[in-house]
Every structure is written in C-alpha cells, then in structure tokens.
Design goal:
It is a single chain. The chain is an alpha/beta fold and 262 residues long. The protein starts with 9 loop residues before the first strand and ends in a 16-residue tail after the last helix. α1 packs across α2 and α1 packs antiparallel against α3. The strands form three sheets. It has a five-stranded parallel β-sheet, sandwiched between helices. The longest helix is centred in the first third of the chain and has 19 residues. It comes from Xylophilus ampelinus. InterPro entries: Acid_phosphat_B-like (IPR005519), HAD-like_sf (IPR036412), HAD_sf (IPR023214), Lipo_e_P4 (IPR006423).
C-alpha cells in the first residue's frame, strides 16, 4: 500500500511513553509515523520472521492450488514487496511532510529494498507457470522507475498488463475487476492493507465495515488472503491524532482483581 499523506505530530505517553512522530497532514488524510514502528520494521527479527511466515504460507497455498485453475496471484507493492521505510525515516529526520514531490523523488530513485521473502516467492510463482499481477496506488508516471526498482531486486520483465498503477481514483476495485476479467479469479491476494484483498474489500470505506469484512471472510485469511505487517500507516490509521488516544481501551486501575497463586 502506498503511504497516505502524513502529519508532523508528537503523541506523548502512547506505547509506554514512546514518541510517535510523523509527517505533515492534509485536510482529510493523516497518519502518524511511529518512530518505534519504523525501528521495528528495520531492525526487529520478529518483523522479518513475520514476513517470512507470510510468504512461506503463500507459497504453500500456491503449490497446493487446484491444477485445473489458472494460478494467478495479485500482490500489492509498497510494504508488501517494496520496503519504503527509508523514505519514512527520511521524512522523520528532515522534519518534512510527505508530498507528491518527495515521494516521486523516492520512487524515481528506485531505492526501495525488498520485503523479506517477497522476491523469492514471486520468482517461485513465475518459475512454476504462475502469473503475478501487481496492483499499486503508486501513480502511473512512476511505472518505469518501479520496474527498475523491481528489476534491481530480481523481478524483471514486468509488462503493463501485470503492473497496474493508479491512473485516476485511489480505489483498486476497477483494477481488480480488470484482472479477474482477463486472468480469472486469483488464487491469492497478498497485501499489507485490507483494501488490497479484491474488489469487495476495495469498496469498503469505514473502519467498522473493514472489521465486518474481516469477520465475514475470516476463513479466507491464510488461505486466499495473506497479510503482511505494517504498523506505520494504512486504512486502520485514524484521520486525526486525537482519535488514536480516544480509540484506545485502558485498564481502569481498579486493584480489585483475582490473584492466582499460593
């Protein structure tokens, strides 16, 4: 998933007094880049373990797919295949906001690294007569740079039918439907955001409806839908930093609790 517009903000006292810092806001979209979350993505062995786990599961599901179906896999790019955390850290350190100009410079540099496990999975699918289609909200003017970035990481020869970037609205619904019409129903959707999981998910607008989508499709997670961890941004992030605090559930401090033990 491409990063949303971000705000420069400090949320003190959250996550055991870790400062959550982010980039500049726009009128109706914002997110707070968490310093701790970025450190976790770049340094924690647990992050790498989770991405390996996701892609090992994806490979198992791909290998066990019915042979009478076209083996089509639809993947997001940002924070699913391409790791853009270095751009987010740059925003943080420079104290500058996310803008199309700085994001496009980052894309043009083709410097994103690979999410662990992603390249090996893509190569396995392509070497096994499968088809990978990338659907991303990177803007279409970044197509050449995105292909260059993928090629540097070992994914070459991606044509325009298999790299569908944003040309208008941000919703991926029409592009999902385009793939289904051309290739058939994908056997796997892989992404870091719920709106990466097909046309129904791409149409969901609210957090409550996203929760309902997960409940109604719980059997699909780990079978058709493979989720990558992204604690930095996404549709889960409230539009205002104040909502981060109001949305938290806390212990009320009541000392009357059951004590278990001798």
């Amino acid at each position: 998933m491409k990063p949303k517009k971000m705000r420069m903000d400090s949320l003190v006292g959250l996550l055991f007094s870790v400062f959550l810092v982010g980039c500049q806001t726009t009128l109706n979209q914002s997110a707070s880049i968490s310093t701790a979350a970025l450190y976790w993505m770049q340094n924690a062995a647990e992050y790498r373990a989770l991405t390996y786990q996701a892609y090992h599961l994806a490979r198992e599901r791909f290998d066990n797919a019915p042979l009478d179906k076209r083996r089509v896999v639809v993947m997001d790019l940002d924070e699913t295949v391409l790791d853009n955390s270095a751009y987010a850290v740059w925003c943080l350190q420079q104290k500058v906001g996310y803008t199309d100009e700085t994001w496009n410079r980052w894309v043009a540099d083709a410097a994103a690294t690979a999410v662990p496990g992603s390249i090996e999975f893509i190569q396995h699918v392509r070497n096994s007569s499968g088809t990978v289609v990338f659907i991303s909200n990177r803007i279409a003017s970044g197509t050449t740079a995105t292909r260059t970035n993928l090629a540097r990481l070992g994914v070459e020869g991606i044509d325009e039918k298999h790299l569908l970037l944003k040309q208008g609205e941000s919703s991926k619904r029409a592009r999902f439907q385009q793939v289904i019409k051309a290739e058939g129903e994908p056997i796997l959707y892989i992404g870091d955001n719920l709106t990466d999981f097909g046309p129904e998910a791409a149409s969901v607008k609210s957090m409550d409806n996203l929760q309902a989508f997960v409940r109604s499709h719980k059997a699909d997670f780990g079978t058709r839908f493979i989720v990558l961890p992204n604690p930095v941004y996404g549709s889960w992030m409230p539009s205002r930093s104040e909502e981060l605090q109001s949305g938290l559930k806390a212990w009320n401090g009541d000392s009357h609790r059951v004590i278990v033990g001798p």
